[in-house]
Amino acid sequence: MAVFKETGGGYGKGYWRVACYYTDWQGIRKKHEKRGFKTKHEAQEYERAFLLKADRDVNMSFDSFIDIYLENLKPQIRLSTYLSKRFFINKHIRPYFMTKTVSEITPTDILQWQNELLMKRDENGRGYAPTTLRTIQNQMNAIFNHAVNYYGLPVNPCRKNKKMGKSKNSEMLFWTMDEYLKFREAIKRKPISYYAFEVLYWTGIRCGELLALTRKDFDLENKTLKIDKSFQILEGEVHITPPKTEKSNRTISLPDFLVREMEDYFESLYKLDDKTRIFPISKSYLAWEMIKGSERSGVKRIRIHDLRHSHCALLIKMGYSTVQIGERLGHESTVITDRYAHLYPSVQKDMASEINKLLEVNGTNDTDKGDDGNE
Q: Pick from 74, 52, 217: which is nearest to 146 by CA?
């Protein structure tokens, strides 16, 4: 291990260089060098931090460990998930603990960090949404769990603290069929918008799945739609990726009217082939169309993803089971589908009505009593 001052000619003269040895994860001894430090102290600090990272020492800075955590995690998860994690970590976690080592952070530090986020307000006096706070909290927990599981940290300091926020919104917005039909009428003059929203509402697919669709995904003869990819723009680049989960790979049956509509839409597209996206638009375009359509139709404003909730609510209203709905929507488990069960409160009234009908068919009513007047 050594820090040297460059003495040769050229650009590096007068700068400092680090040259040190470390053992990698395979047990192989390797040499590491880095040039261009302006001062000896800067070079020594770099050498110290590098060796702590290489030795998996939890006395390394929390800032350095975040880099290790993200580097370890990136090959294991989808790029979109990685970028989302990195965003939340860099904005809401990294800045608060820049000067501390991993092992120095205590439950009290976590509590003060939580309080800072809970009290934060924007220019309109609004704080973070409960779901955002829970997402940030989960990222912090994951970082320390990684340190415990792989780097020898004795305990996760988050374990003694209450979690911030909520895992899901208390209210899930959706459109009833009547609301959607009003909205559809307001946007029917733009074919690409009209047909895009028709597919979203009547099939319940995700926006990314919609934007990735090509002509070959539709089998109009058998009235089916195959979902096997998703469209995303990540760091300014277009990516066609596998769907969100394994069960998201699915084939959806289409209603007759939607088959006819898609036939009309395909006929209107110039030189349509099997590889070109049939909806060459963006999520932001659709979001803006929803805002304008909601204003013109007078229905409440919802998000694009809420069209998926709307389709689920419609299927619940029609009486389908969570298993059946989950298969159509590509849910990983029925637990996800169960979250939608409250969307149509009128279903409870329908259930009561059906029970009344059963009693009437069997010649029984609520006034039937035993001989003693008791039920």
A: 74
Alpha carbon distance 375, 368 (integer Å):
8
User: Residue 49 is inside which H or E element, if any?
Assistant: helix 40-54
Residue 368's pLDDT is 46
Residue 319 in tokens: 């009486």
The CATH number, out of the four listed (3.20.20.370, 1.10.260.40, 1.10.443.10, 1.25.40.10), of the domain defined by the range 177-346: 1.10.443.10
- Encode pLDDT of 75-95 as tens digits: 988 888 899 999 999 999 999
Cβ atoms of 103 and 153 within 8 Å: the answer is: yes
Q: Is 9 strand, coil or helix?
A: coil
CATH number of 61-170: 1.10.150.130
- Extended beta strands in 138-191, E state: none
Q: How many residues does the chain have?
A: 375
Tell the residue number behind the tokens 């926006």, with chain if given: 207
- Using DSSP bridges, classify how beta strands 218-219 and 2-5 pair: parallel, antiparallel or unpaired: unpaired
- In one-letter notation, the amino acid at residue 61 is S
For helices 306-317 and 191-203, the axis angle rounded to 10 degrees is: 50
Q: Which residues pair with 241 in a beta bridge?
A: 230
Q: Can you give the three-state secondary structure of 169-181, one letter per residue?
A: CCCCCCCCHHHHH
* C-alpha angle 294-311-176 in degrees, rounded to nearest 5: 50
Strands 29-37 and 16-23: antiparallel
- SS3 sequence of 265-284: HHHHCCCCCCCCECCCCCHH
Residue 32, judged by CB atoms within 10 A of its CB (0-12, 13-18, 19+), counts as: middle
Q: Residue 187 corresponds to which tokens in the numbers above? A: 């946007």
pTM check: above 0.70? no
For residue 237, give the H/E element and its range: strand 237-241
Tell me: pLDDT of 59 over 70.
Answer: yes
